[in-house]
Amino acid sequence: MRRPVHAQAMHGRADTPPLGVHALVFEGGWSREEAGRVIAGSARAGFDLVEVPLLDPDTLDAAMTWELLEEHGLSASASTGLTFETDISSSSADVRAAGKALLTKAMQKAAQFGARHFVGVTYSAMGKYAQPASAEQWQHCVASLKELAAIAADLGLEYGLEVVNRYETNLLNTTAQAMEMIADVGADNMLVHIDTYHCNIEERTMAAAVLACKDRLGYVHIGESHRGYLGTGSVDFGSFFQALAAVDYTGPITFESFSSAVVSPTLSNALCVWRDLWEDSEDLATHAQRYMAAQWHAAAMNRAAGVRM
Ligand code: MN
Questions:
Q1: Spatial contact of 237 and 205, defined as CB atoms under 8 Å apart
Q2: How far, in Å, is the centroid of ligand 1 from the Cα of 81?
Q3: Tens digit of pLDDT for each residue in 23-40?
Q4: Is 147 a catalytic residue?
Q5: Around ion ligand 1, which residues have CB less than 5 A away?
Q6: Are 110 and 75 in contact (CB under 8 A)?
Q7: Distance 253 CA to ligand 1 centre (A)
Q8: Which of 162, 168, 203, 224 is catalytic?
Q9: Alpha carbon of 38 to those of 163, 239, 245, 290: distances in Å?
Q10: Is 67 noted as a catalytic residue in this protein?
Q11: CA nearest 41: which of 27, 61, 28, 55?
Q12: pTM (global) more than 0.85
């Protein structure tokens, strides 16, 4: 399948990884009008890639998405999060089957609009568990992921496991745990998806989190501690970007931010978006693209000067 022309040459520096933005920065839905505003806004803000949430794959029009990406010269990734009704680590075979069916459908849609990365909380429910993960839960997850990684490979997709904080899963709260899961699954197309918002809660340092998964790190979310404007919270982006540059990271780096100004019926409540962190999507996105490009530029200069983490 032909994929949309990569827009990096148009927007970014040649040595900068593709910079992306989550659709929910602009719109909470994916009608033609909404998708058009997301993709046009992402291109205007200087991004190379747009991340499309696929929580409800049946409602997404892949052909329309493909067309709009082509029109604006952007590429796309796809992300999702499971619920307790579709948890592939569940002790119920029926629940696991429902999760695998949903993820398969979502991956098919992602491939149809040219995505290469299928990421997010793709291994458990995205929600608060009332107990620690059991050995049985881990094994159910491993078995499900083996099947799903094979389906992803057939579709030409990398399958990302997003490491999230303890209130959103009980399975993968650190990048070291994600590396263990990937080792147990044993699939070449499975990657670690790191997110600075979650890292800031769970990991010892931002750099240590990157170094622990450097051999399988393939997707990055950049989010501030309150999920608003980058640089206005407590995340240590300097050391995080320096670690990315030090390990020669080349995958997508995607900005994620949520405010009650833009609401998704499927995602906003799951992510506990209760507050208004910003109003102006365009200003937020433009600021984030510049911030991320500048962080990468500074980190790459230090890398070139021989700085090692
Ligand atoms: Mn994230």
A1: no
A2: 10
A3: 999 999 999 999 999 999
A4: no
A5: 195, 221, 256
A6: no
A7: 11
A8: 162
A9: 26, 30, 29, 18
A10: no
A11: 27
A12: yes
